[in-house]
Amino acid sequence: MQHRTLGHSGAVVTSYALGTMTFGAEATEETSHAILDSYFDAGGNFIDTADVYSAGVSEEVIGRWLAKRPDVRDRAVIATKGRFPMGTAPNDVGTSRRRLTRALDDSLRRLGVEQIDLYQMHAWDPITPLEETLRFLDDAVSRGKIAYYGFSNFLGWQLTKAVHVARNLGWNPPVSLQPQYSLLVRDIEFEIVPAALDAGIGLLPWSPLGGGWLSGKYKRDQQPTGATRLGENPKRGMEAWQARNDNPRTWAVIDTVQDIADAHGVSPSQVALAWLADRPAVTSVILGARTTEQLADNLAAAELQLSADEVDRLTQASQPEAGVYPYGPMAEEQRSRKMEGGR
Q1: What pLDDT is recorded for position 278?
Q2: Fewer CB within 10 A of the end CB, N or C, for the chain?
Q3: Catalytic site residue 53?
């Protein structure tokens, strides 16, 4: 795996991170520890979790693994998140100072560490003043409870506002953002990617295989069944079966991925991941796995070199859908200019 700096920070992470949303839910503790072992044995160093994953169990599973592997702790970069409900009371959710004080301490305890390397706000909080959240995060850095902080699921204007408020007030700025990003979901390229590039923010894409669609396991017009996420729940979230199956773009992308995978003799997942890992502003792609076999296949993407023509084919097949304005060709022309003048 490649090593890259975490946004504009000096911390170094691998180009593929280990997502742990399955820990304590779809993966038992024994399997979760085996996945962690396999990931670090393959050279990875970046673990991503959240307090809300299995209501804290994911963090506890990682904490018990770290206690068994003291040799790993010094090279592990640990990221977690806070913001979503961990209880039913009004102050059990959000990014207020009161909420985050407890959430951060609880995450430190569950993980069994003295410092969290990257603490992320899991989503925008429309109720808490942004200054209150940023001041808490700056204080947490100063006190050594966290090394860096970032966000997840922020829009472009939210990210830009946070960066400039922090800088203008002399506080530590964010270093990263976790957005949904894949060959099937490229809308962030309209606003969020430019905002990240402008601020030196590293992107940590989640759902890089589009909820499993880019792995090649789903077939056109054949509703999935069995022990897969969509097999168990075809209406599941943003990757719901019917809407994507009905969109011709979905199958244009999948067919292109499969063609390139066949040419290389690799899995479709590896092609999709290799394309994403080299996109502008991307620091580390977050891999989720139920088994060590899934993880091994995904990590093999680090060895795959796509040609310029293959990258172009994937990029063209997956062009995000946009209207005429403000993101279409006419708007792009308005945002550009020739050095020599004229139209």
Answers
A1: 97
A2: C
A3: yes
